[in-house]
Amino acid sequence: MENLANIQWEALLPHINARIILEHEDEQALAQVAVGKVPSCQIDNLSNVLDVLLNKEKQINYQLSKKFITYNIKEISISLPYDHALPHYQNRFRLYDKFIGVIAKYLPNNQDFIVDIGANVGDTTALLLQYCLNPIICIEADEEFFGIMEHNLSEYNQRIIFVNSFVSGNNFKNVELVKNSGTARAVESKTKVLKSDSLESIIKKSNLGKCILLKTDTDGFDFEILLSSLSIIKKDSPILYWENEISSLKDIELAKNLLNKLANMNYTKYIVIDNFGNPLFYGCSSQWLEQINQYLLNNIYTKNNTFYYTDIVAFPEIYSHLIPQIASEYNDFIRSSNVYT
Asked: Helix axis angle, 249-264 relative to 286-302, nearest 10°?
């Protein structure tokens, strides 16, 4: 425990219900981790404290059983809110949200870390855990989803750092998170202020080293998040995976700005997947992305959608050689009847 980073202690402390007071304690070490906020008990009172904790756990499990369903992400079972849309989508569309697992399988090493922004209830991370051995930073802004994610992935604490924050350079004023069918979208509000941290500051606290894969899925804020994280992208050159939602001319301009910035950082090849999980392009240039974005915007006006958004994977030149292997495995998966690759 003495080797835990500050950000790991911050994530752990809210889940410590009590500590046992010892006869001889290291006061300096205790002060460094702020255990004064944790209720304490004498050893002779331990049985009473355990009874209270067991009753509390029973109440939590009862509430979970009433409001949640169990859903399998490959071999990992997670709890989902009863109205979460993921089971419905994956039942209708076999490929939905599966592609990132193939990306993780072909990461060039297992030492560098992955960032999952908009981690929701931990479903994407549950998939990543089964395709690679890399450590993962899970970032979720919504407090309810964050708590569910911690519960779902508690067995994997040695590989995961949990962060409850919105990612940006500044706090978003007059913004709140509104949940619907298992997602949380940031919308304008007259009274709310959404706390945020820069990705650079979150990574600095983690003490993990280099980012190899950066995924963001935040229902409309992904361009802003990536544009506010260019310092990390420039330094580490990670593979980027983002939800490419185009609903306005502003989104067109943000996407164009991001692609121009990435081109200057030697991001040369892209994979494009539609919202159902079907591949559109393997290894295309940014010019194709701009045309697809125009198509997505035009669909809003014509209301004749064949697909509604895309997922984009951006490869810097040093990792572009991975694309043929990834494409081959994903195509084999599509042509099979398997639920997972």
From this structure: 170
